[in-house]
Each structure stands twice: as structure tokens, then as C-alpha cells.
Design brief:
With about 180 residues, the protein is α+β, with helices and mostly antiparallel strands. Helices cover about 35% and strands about 15% of the residues. A hairpin with a 5-residue loop joins strand 1 and strand 2. Helix 5 packs antiparallel against helix 6. The termini are far apart.
Length: about 180
């Protein structure tokens, strides 16, 4: 909006700002009450803002480490991508989610840069024109391999209704449930 010469409709606070205190408290309550299963709080560019202990364990890191972006974790070679047994299906679904976010937020948005990065990652070119829903299941499972153990998950996404702040409107809380 600013680039077009218009004032934004809502302010955009920082995740740690006092104006988002109630949002953070609600998110932490959801994360805490979802234990022992993983749950993460994401912004519109899929940066992890908060996570519960189970999610940090699933991500193979600790809350004190540097910021994690789920686009990087899923698409760039590394331990998280390597642990996703059905990576082609997950990556295909994620590309579609990223494209939807770019349509909503614009081609100059941070999520557009993340989509471009994902599309250039190894193994993605063959997925670009693949249709979704070829698994004959209602929910796409996330199948993870870790320490010789395979786990299957499905996820739900929660967002805040009636948000009057750009960041609060874009917050996603993704909860993993055993499949």
C-alpha cells in the first residue's frame, strides 16, 4: 500500500511488540495445550515465531537457536528435508500454498521471494505442474523419518479472526496431529 502511495489500512506490529501481547499469549496457550504434539506459530513468510518443545524436537533444534524459516527447512538440502519421506507430495502442496500467499500479498512481498527460492531448490522443477490430491486421501500426511522411526502426521492451521493488525492477520498456528 505504501509503495502505491496509500496509507495501510492497519498497522503492522513486530511479534515482540506490546500491542501483540494478547496474540502471543493466545498462541502460547495453544502451543502449550497441544503438547505432547508439535505446534508452531508462523508469519506470512513461514518464519517460525514460536514453537512448543515437541516442535523444536521435530525440527531438530532448540528455541534458542537462530530463526527458522519453513520454506528453507523443507526445500533446502538438510536434515529436515531429508527426514520427510513423502517430500515430493509435501513440496508440491507447499508450492501451491506459497503461490496462494503470493497472489494475496503481491509479487514484491517477502513470501514471493521465498516462493522464488523454493522454485529454484533441487528437485522442485519436476513438481511445478503436478496436480494436488493424487494420494487418494482426504488429508495429506506428513511422513517423517527420525532416528530409525517413522511417524505420520496431519496438520491443522489456526488463524486469528477480527485482526486489526497486519501481522496478527497473517499469523498461522500449525498443529501436528498423529495420523
Amino acid at each position: 500500500m505504501l509503495a502505491a502511495g496509500y496509507a495501510p489500512r492497519f498497522s503492522e506490529s513486530d511479534w515482540s511488540s506490546s500491542s501483540l501481547e494478547a496474540v502471543r499469549a493466545a498462541a502460547k496457550l495453544i502451543l502449550h495445550n497441544h503438547e505432547p504434539y508439535p505446534a508452531i506459530v508462523l508469519d506470512s513468510s513461514f518464519n517460525v515465531l514460536e514453537a512448543n518443545a515437541a516442535a523444536w524436537s521435530l525440527l531438530g533444534t532448540e528455541a534458542t537457536q537462530t530463526a527458522i524459516n519453513m520454506v528453507d527447512a523443507v526445500f533446502l538440502p538438510g536434515p529436515i528435508r531429508d527426514s520427510i519421506e513423502n517430500w515430493d507430495e509435501i513440496a508440491n502442496y507447499f508450492i501451491h500454498r506459497l503461490r496462494q500467499s503470493v497472489r494475496f500479498r503481491g509479487t514484491n512481498s517477502a513470501v514471493a521471494a521465498k516462493l522464488k527460492q523454493a522454485l529454484s531448490a533441487p528437485g522442485v522443477k519436476s513438481l511445478i505442474d503436478q496436480p494436488l490430491g493424487t494420494t487418494n486421501t482426504v488429508l495429506l500426511p506428513v511422513v517423517l523419518q527420525s532416528n530409525g522411526e517413522t511417524t505420520r502426521w496431519f496438520t491443522t492451521i489456526t488463524s486469528f479472526g477480527g485482526a486489526m493488525d497486519a501481522l496478527a492477520e497473517e499469523i498461522m498456528i500449525e498443529q501436528f496431529h498423529p495420523a
